[in-house]
Amino acid sequence: MDTRYTYYPGCSLHATGIAYDKSMRAVFKKLGSELAELEDWNCCGATAYMSVQKTVAFAVSARNLAIAERTGDDVVAPCSACYYALKHTRVGMEEDAELRAQVEEALAAGGLEADLSVEVRHPLEVLLNDIGIPRLVAEQTHSLEEFRPACYYGCQIVRPFGAVDEDPELPMSMETLFTALGARPVEYPPKVRCCGGMLVATMPQVATELSMDLVDWAIAREANCIVTVCPLCQSNLDLINVTKGSNGPTHQIPVLYFTQLIGLAIGCTPEEVGMEHALIPPDAKAPPVGVSSRHDAPVTIVGTREA
Hints:
Elements: E1 3-7, H1 18-30, E2 33-37, H2 54-68, E3 75-76, H3 80-95, H4 97-108, E4 120-121, H5 123-131, H6 133-139, E5 149-152, H7 173-180, H8 204-220, E6 225-228, H9 231-240, E7 242-245, E8 248-251, E9 255-257, H10 258-265
Helix pairs in contact: 1-10, 2-3, 2-4, 3-4, 5-6
């Protein structure tokens, strides 16, 4: 293995985000990088509880950091909310001495300590900076020519702790990556708007409207898939754009994880990247590089509304 990371899956990737988990593991394995799941991890606490009991919320998240420090490897957190919560905890403890003392006292009661020696990172940033686009292109075996993704970043990896060093209002890292791999990303203005994830239980109508706006924008720009970095965003968008027709439910547009698309490009099978876990599984087959995807082995993405 070239590199090793401590993998923090969080709650979603062992449940509704299983396709993200599968595609993450498949991509990193293909690239010779080890994801070692954090032992005895607990929920990051990414809820409104932070505003109720701040110290306890930080301590819950800091426990994961303390355990991760035993490995000495950077923590990779695929879920945007997990990334934010762990990063927020690390930065908060660095900047607030009183808070840090309180959290350290709580950790000590469990036989732990956190010296903040490991970084919290998002896999998009790891793939861009540690692996690099040239390496990904060199590893490419299958064409993404027929993919027209609307790249959706969401809220929590662009602000306040930008996972990738770029304009938080106009990130372009996914577009740059997928263009290099032969896909044709569409212009997608709402790429950093909220999907309404935290409002699903409390203000469902607002959440529905926010998510539908994102789907409508993608379709209007003639995208044939939405590609995201967050399991909650994927779940919201995947659910919201299922329509019921005379022949059963269909999707207006598939919602994929960015790691699924990368996985297809570097030779992972649809099963290896968890395509079957979508509400309506898309038939997204990338033909081998060198084969004309338009004529000999077409990419078909089932459920995409015709323009």
